[in-house]
What does this fold into?
Amino acid sequence: MSRSSPPESPAPPRFPRRILYALTAVAIAIGIGTVGFYFIEGLSLLDSLYLAAQTVTTVGYGDITPSTTSGRIFALVLMIGGVGVVLYALTTAVQTIVQSEIIATMGQKRQARRMEKMRNHYIICGAGRVGSHLVRTLLGTEDRFIVIERDPSRVAELTDLGVTVLVRDATLEESLREAGVEHARGLAACLPDDADNVYVVLTAHDLNPGLHIVARAAEQQAEAKLFRAGANRVVAPTIIGGHRMAMALTKPAVHDFLGSITANELELAFEQLEIEPESDLAGKKLSETNIRSELDIVVVSIRRSDGQILFNPSGEVPIACGDTLIAIGHSESLVKLANLTKDKKQSKV
It folds into this structure.
């Protein structure tokens, strides 16, 4: 599955300070020459600038020359100093360009090697309004991820944040392969166009059928298409925003509570925890554990391995191997509970 791509826009080059300093030195030399010829030779500002530029750059057309002894002495000093300044500027420019190319090439090779070694990572396709928020959220975690983005300004911003960025078209199969889609844990299609997201989801699902895919839908009618293409979850920011506004209007207290959790004002977080076979919690009832009393964690839902979802489970509900607990609590307590779902040797709660 392939798709043609228009020419890619490279990340915007940053103007090196060394070159800026060198150009400033040349401008200062020409400026000094212009002022000197203006007062010593009595030339107009334009003729003085013209003569100063000729002298500093050693062009010397000869159409305008100093006519006084003082002017010739000044021109001699300006020639010697100007040649040094120009040579310095040229040398600095060449060195900076060569060094930049070498560093960029080495950086690309290092990034390519790093991406080749990545396993169980996430791929973010698009770093626009939705994708950028997702990136900043993932930066606060220990999860490894790659962003595929082609907009130069966004690439520069992501690079400043230390994000691994692949400057490619996310809708291309080769771009997803280069990002390691075959070995990825999940993919988020955050492109602004629904058709592009459908194509990304379709291609990614074809390359890695077991990949967990979350897609953005700009229009409600695109949700069904994204699910058919292979998305596991579809998020429609405009619809969610409308629901949140309706809640803020009609149920402000509920809206404020959800907002405080999202903003982490209450220092609470949601977590999903899978009960593994060796977990000490497997086979116990919720009431037989001290998850609520000691860890101060509320289990709001249990998802069975067959897909059944139990909302607000009672204390008599047994915890089975393969269950996924949806819990809310403080981050430190959630970490302790996560350890209990995996290792029998941990202290019993």
In short: Strands lie at 122-125, 145-148, 165-166, 186-189, 212-216, 233-235, 268-274, 298-303, 309-311, 324-330. Residues 69-117 form the longest helix (49 residues). The radius of gyration is 32 Å.
